[in-house]
C-alpha cells in the first residue's frame, strides 16, 4: 500500500528517495541551494549505519563516489552548479570506467560564483559530456518534488542497468520548494543487482581479478571500447527517452521547457485556455537522451516552438537541431536567478502566434 | 626443506615495463610479499595511481581501481568504507600525493581513513618525463627546473617532507619512511609495510609508508649512481625510520 | 478552486512558518499544494517572502506572480504586494505595523492588528497565526480544521505546551475579520 502523502522540500525528498533506493554511501560538499540534501543525508545515512562523508571538496566527493561505485555499492553525490564544474573530471573517469552512480545538480545561476537563485544554465555541461573525452550519461529533469523523488529513486536502477552515471538535473526552485510527495518503498539492500565486474569479495567466488579503469594507451583498443560504449548509447536512445505532452495536438504553438520552466509554461497554458487560445507544452524529462524524434514529428506537423529556459538559450539548440529547419523555433529566457513569469511567457507566445498568422 | 626464495603469488610472473634501476618494481614486490604472508590475496585492492605505477594493475594479481591523478585517497576512501574488511592499498607517487592530490591526501589522513598509502618518493615526475616534483631537492635539476630547484629566487618552493607534515594530524596512526637503496633498507621497508597493513586490518586509522626510490632515467644517472644518491642526498633530507607510531602495540 | 497567496514580511516574523503551516493543513484537507520561500541573504531581519498555492487540481507554476491574496506583515512589503496583486484580489495587512492600506481601490483590503492581538494573547511571536486565522476566514481556501494535529508534528514535543496559545491566535484572527 502506498504511504501517506508527506510535505517535503525537494532537496529532502531527493535524499529520502536515494536512501530508499538503497544508496549505501553519500559524499557531498556544502553549497546553496542544495544544503538541505547534504544535511538530510548526514542524518539519515548515519542513522542507518550507512556511509556519509562531508568531503573536502566536490573533486574529492565525486572521487569517493568513484571508489564506492567501483565496489558495486549504490552511491550518490550532490551539489549545485559551481560544484558540478569541479565534479566533471570525476564524471569523465566514471564514464570511461563504466561506473554506475548518481549525481544531483540543484542548479543555481552563473557563470562563476553567480547567484544562489535558481538557474537552468548547466544544460550544455550536463548533456554534452561536461568533462573531457567522448561520452554521455543519462540526465533526468524533474518538474516537481514528487518527480524529483521518483526520478532519483529510478536513477539508481538506470545507473545499474546501463553502467553509467545518471544525473538528476534539478534547480534551486525544485530543491527549495515544498510540495506533497508519496515516497517509494525502501529497497532491500540484499536484493539489489549483483555486479560481477566490481572489485572486492573475490574470496567469495574465486573469480578472476577485476580492474576498474579508464586508461588504454592502445589507440585501436581504446577506439573499440569507445565504439562499444556508443553502441550502448544508441540502445539508451531507443529505450530511455522520456517526455510529457500537454495539448500538443490542438496547439498551434508548443512550448518546449523542462523542470521549473515547464511549470511556468503550464501556467501560461491555463492563461491561454481562459483566453481561448490553443497552446501546448512539450516537456523533455530525459535531457540526454533528448526526445529528438518526437520534436521532429511535431515540427513536421508544422507546430511552432517556443523554448523557455532559465538561461540565455541552451536546450533551444537541441530543439533547433531536432526541428532541422522544418519549423520556427523561438526562445524566451530569463537568467541571473530570475524565473520567467507565466504572464511574460504567455505574452511572448501570443506575440509569436500573432505575427505569423497576421492577427 | 624450507623455501628460501620464491616469486610472490600476488605478483604476476612477468617482466615489468619499469626502467632499469627503478624502485617501483622492488616496492611492488614488497607489497606482494606482505599480502601473501597475511593471506590476503583475494581480499586486497590496489589503487594504481596516475604516474609510472599506473601499470600496477598489470603486475599485482588482485583487484585494482584506477582513479584520476591525485584523487587516489578519495577513491580509496570510497572503497575502504564499502569494504572495511579488505586490505586497501593507496599507491601514490610524489606528484600524485603532494602536488595535485594534496587536499585529498591530507583530508583522508586527517579523517583517519583505514587504508594504507604507499608513497613512492622519487623526487621527480617520472611518467611525464622528469619535471620538478614537490619533493625535488633544492638544487636538483629537472626539465622544469633546468638550473636546479631554486626555492626563493625562482619561486620554486622547498621540498615537502610528507610524513612530517601528516604527523601533526590526529587521524594518522603510523607514518614510516623507508628506502630501497640497499638490501638492509629494503628489508626494513618491508617491515614498515607489514606493520602498516596489519594496523589497517585491525582498523587502527590512517597508515602510510613513504619509500625513497630511485629514478635513474629522469635523474640521468646509472642505476648504481641513483641508488647511491638516494642514500646520500635524499636520505639526508628525508630521515629514514618511523616518523610517527601511535599504534596500540607501540603504546604497550 | 485555486488560491494563490503571496506572503511577505521580514525575517523573524514567522512568514515562512505561516506559509508552511498553511500548505501543511491544506494537504491534510486533500488539496494540492506548493510552497516556495525566498529569503534575503541575511538569516535574521532580511526579507522573508513565500509563494504559496493551494488547489483542488494540479498546480501549474509554483511561482505566485499575480496573487489572489497577499499577506503584508510589514511596511516594506506593501509596495511590492500592491504592485503584483491580482485585479480585485484580497490584501490582508498587519495593521499593527502597516498604517495605510495602499492606494489600489480594486483590492479587498483587510486590516488585522496581528501584533496587538498576539500580544494580548501572550506573545507577539504568534502574530503570524493571527494572520493565518484571518486568511482562512477571508479566502475560505483552507479550513484549518486539522491544524491542531499538524502543529503536533510541526513543533517538537518540548513546544507542545504552546499549541493552545497558537490555536487561540487562529480563533482571534478569524474573529477580527
Ligand atoms: C589532471 C592531470 N594532470 C596531469 C597529468 C599528467 N601526469 C601523468 S603522470 C604525472 C606525474 C606523476 O608523477 P608522480 O606522482 O611523482 O609519479 P611517478 O611517475 O614519478 O611515479 C603527470 C603530471 C594527468 N594525467 N592528469
Highlighted features:
heterotrimer; A: 359 residues; alpha/beta; Rossmann fold; 8-stranded mixed sheet; 5-stranded mixed sheet; 13 helices; 16 strands; globular; disordered C terminus; C: 177 residues; Pyruvate-ferredoxin Oxidoreductase, domain 3; 6-stranded mixed sheet; 6 helices; binds thiamine diphosphate
Notes on the structure:
The complex is a heterotrimer of chains A (359), B (252) and C (177). Chain A is 44% helix and 21% strand. Chain A is α/β, with parallel strands linked by helices and 359 residues long. Chain A folds into two domains: 4-239, Thiamin diphosphate (ThDP)-binding fold, Pyr/PP domains (Rossmann fold), CATH 3.40.50.970; 244-353, Rossmann fold. In chain A, strands 2, 3, 4, 5, 6, 7, 8 and 14 form an eight-stranded mixed beta sheet that branches. Chain A is globular. Mean pLDDT of chain A is 96; it is low at 355-359. Chain B has one domain: Thiamin diphosphate (ThDP)-binding fold, Pyr/PP domains (Rossmann fold, 3-Layer(aba) Sandwich). Chain B has a seven-stranded mixed beta sheet, sandwiched between helices. In chain B, α1 crosses α7 and α4 (94-100) crosses α5 (102-110). Chain B is globular. Chain C has one domain: Pyruvate-ferredoxin oxidoreductase, PFOR, domain III (Pyruvate-ferredoxin Oxidoreductase, domain 3), CATH 3.40.920. Chain C has helices at 15-28, 78-84, 114-121, 127-139, 147-154, 163-175, and strands spanning 2-10, 32-39, 47-55, 69-72, 90-94, 108-112. In chain C, α1 packs across α5 and α4 (127-139) crosses α6. The longest helix of chain C has 14 residues, at 15-28. Chains in contact: A-B, A-C. The interface between A and B is large, with 40 and 32 residues. β10 (211-212) of chain A pairs parallel with β2 (63-65) of chain B, so a sheet runs across the interface. Residues 50-53, 69, 93-96, 120, 122, 124-128, 133 of chain B line the site of thiamine diphosphate.
Helices and strands in order, then pairings?
The complex is a heterotrimer of chains A (359), B (252) and C (177).
Chain A: E1 6-9, H1 10-20, E2 25-28, H2 35-47, E3 51-54, H3 58-70, E4 75-79, H4 81-96, E5 101-109, E6 115-118, H5 123-127, E7 138-140, H6 145-162, E8 165-171, H7 172-176, E9 178-181, H8 202-205, E10 211-212, H9 219-239, E11 243-246, E12 253-256, H10 259-275, E13 279-284, E14 286-288, H11 292-300, E15 304-309, H12 315-323, E16 329-333, H13 342-357
Parallel strand pairs in A: 2-3, 2-4, 4-5, 5-8, 7-8, 12-13, 12-15, 15-16
Antiparallel strand pairs in A: 1-9, 5-6, 7-14, 11-13
Chain B: H1 24-37, E1 44-47, H2 56-59, E2 63-65, H3 72-82, E3 87-93, H4 94-100, H5 102-110, E4 116-121, H6 162-167, E5 172-179, H7 183-201, E6 206-212, H8 216-219, H9 223-237, E7 241-245, H10 248-251
Parallel strand pairs in B: 1-2, 1-3, 3-4, 4-6, 5-6
Antiparallel strand pairs in B: 5-7
Helix pairs in contact in B: 1-7, 4-5
Chain C: E1 2-10, H1 15-28, E2 32-39, E3 47-55, E4 69-72, H2 78-84, E5 90-94, E6 108-112, H3 114-121, H4 127-139, H5 147-154, H6 163-175
Parallel strand pairs in C: 1-4, 4-5, 5-6
Antiparallel strand pairs in C: 1-3, 2-3
Helix pairs in contact in C: 1-4, 1-5, 3-4, 3-6, 4-6
Bound molecules: thiamine diphosphate.
